[in-house]
TrEMBL record:
Any one GO molecular-function label of the UniProt entry: UDP-N-acetylmuramoylalanine-D-glutamate ligase activity
Record family assignment: Belongs to the MurCDEF family.
Gene: murD
Descriptive protein name: UDP-N-acetylmuramoylalanine--D-glutamate ligase
Keyword Zinc attached: no
Mur ligase C-terminal domain segment(s): 307-420
Superkingdom, natural source: Bacteria
Recorded catalytic activity of this chain's protein: UDP-N-acetyl-alpha-D-muramoyl-L-alanine + D-glutamate + ATP = UDP-N-acetyl-alpha-D-muramoyl-L-alanyl-D-glutamate + ADP + phosphate + H(+)
PANTHER family named among the record's database cross-references: UDP-N-ACETYLMURAMOYLALANINE--D-GLUTAMATE LIGASE
Binding site for ATP: 108-114
Pathway it works in: Cell wall biogenesis; peptidoglycan biosynthesis
NCBIfam families registered for this protein in UniProt: murD
Main location: cytoplasm
Species name: Lutibacter aestuarii
Length: 443
């Protein structure tokens, strides 16, 4: 059997290693240049590869093609493969055939990384043999190839879910759904929503779907579509017949029996959205038979994800916060919502069809100045120039931080929360966050 892997990033390399281990004849093709780290892995494993182009003659010989989530379905080579009836799947679909471990799949527009890390943290504390991967850290395929985990905790993007056929998580979590990546979904929000809900399409009544019952988009979809899984919602606003909810500021889990887990005042991560992430993680751990005390302790001592509302330094009474992972408007909404002081907001990058108007009330209330960090900032300037007196355009993290340093006064917060992708000026949101942190340290 011939396996062709398109794209030699984390997921592609993982699939190639697993494919070789399972006896496939593997060929890796990347239209760009393969990084040295991944090239070395391919050479060490004696897996043939090409970079800088796709050799169609070799690719069309495939029995099965694993495509990287970064490659859109509409590119010519994928369309041609589909016409030739050569199956094109995602790495999570490919890897799921080769594990007997329980899969916990976590998707959503925001909060999925934090929730994935929370679940993993609780399971590790409970001494459960768990691996974390997918859209974060190591690829699922590499994990399956190299370890026998009892539980796989996977962060899943809509792009990864687009390529599934039989992939089924035993526990699926949808944290929330807000417009994002619309450029990949023909600018139709419903296409993106359907994509997220693919996480539950193969689930049965023995499986679980944990979701935000305060999210209208999710509720509407569930009302109008058949879900076979057992539904376990979570809510900050209402008591539920089953699921996770708040009672007197305590997190209550209710499934089969009712359990009080902890007071939200002792959660390590603050903010309403993090309370929801904690509820989803607690419910997951409870289904996996983790003791209540272990869940509580884990949620009390968890350290957050890097680049997500990360405190960097306080300089002259000004707090600098790195929220570079906020690559969409909704994530930035959470960040601004949690600001308690006048804020100098650094925003901008590659706009994925953003509507900044929903940020208007928060900007009016909290933001004293805006620093644009992107090549094209027209939309941001146009949206906010009537509500914020000072808007400055910059073309790099160092310049943005220097301008912020001049503007901010004692008691203010300088917040990098871009609401955009980073690819115009940076390699990734991590690169953007690291350059921001570096610039702050050099002040």
């Amino acid at each position: 059997m011939k396996l062709v892997v398109l794209g030699a990033g984390e997921s592609g390399i993982g699939a190639a290693i697993l494919g070789k281990k399972k006896g496939f004849e593997v060929f890796v093709s990347d239209k760009g240049i393969i990084t040295q780290k991944y090239k070395q892995v391919l050479l060490n494993n004696e897996i043939p590869f090409e970079e800088g182009n796709h050799s169609e003659d070799k690719i069309f010989e495939a029995d099965i093609v694993m495509k990287s989530p970064g490659i859109p379905d509409k590119v010519a080579i994928i369309q041609e493969l589909i016409e030739r009836k050569i199956p094109v799947i995602s790495e999570i679909e490919f890897a799921s055939k080769y594990t007997n471990g329980i899969i916990v799949g976590i998707t959503g527009s925001n909060g999925k990384t934090t929730t994935t890390m929370l679940v993993n943290h609780i399971l590790k504390k409970a001494k459960i043999n768990a691996g974390m991967g997918g859209n974060i850290g190591e690829s699922f395929a590499a994990q399956v190839a190299e370890n026998e985990y009892d539980v796989h905790v996977l962060e899943l993007s809509s792009f990864q879910l687009d390529g599934i056929v039989n992939f089924t998580p035993h526990i699926a979590i949808i944290t929330n759904i807000t417009p994002d990546h619309l450029d990949r979904y023909n600018y139709k929000f419903e296409n993106y929503v359907n994509s997220k809900f693919r996480i539950t399409e193969n689930q049965t009544a023995q499986d679980f779907l944990i979701f935000d019952a305060d999210d209208e988009v999710i509720l509407n979809w569930i009302k109008n579509n058949k879900v076979k899984a057992t539904l376990l919602p979570f809510s900050l606003k209402k008591e539920l017949e089953q699921g996770a909810y708040l009672k007197d500021d305590n997190i209550i889990l209710k499934y089969i029996k009712e359990e009080k887990i902890m007071s939200i005042s002792t959660l390590a991560l603050k903010g309403k959205h993090n309370t929801k992430n904690a509820m989803a993680a607690a419910m997951t751990a409870s289904l996996l038979k983790v003791r209540k005390n272990t869940i509580r302790e884990s949620l009390e001592d968890f350290e957050g994800a890097e680049h997500r509302l990360e405190s960097v330094l306080k300089i002259n009474g000004v707090q600098y916060v790195n929220d570079s992972k906020a690559t969409n408007v909704n994530a930035t909404f959470y960040a601004l919502d949690s600001m308690k002081t006048p804020t100098v907001w650094i925003v901008g990058g590659v706009d994925k069809g953003n509507d900044y108007l929903e940020l208007m009330p928060l900007v009016r209330e909290k933001v004293k100045a805006i620093i644009c960090l992107g090549i094209d900032n027209q939309k941001i300037v146009h949206t906010f120039n009537n509500v914020v007196d000072l808007i400055v355009e910059t073309a790099g993290a160092e310049e943005a931080v220097k301008v912020a340093y001049k503007i901010a006064e004692k008691g203010d917060t300088v917040l990098l929360s871009p609401a955009c992708a980073s690819f115009d000026l940076f390699e990734s949101y991590e690169d953007r966050g690291n350059k921001f942190k570096q610039a702050v340290r050099e002040l």
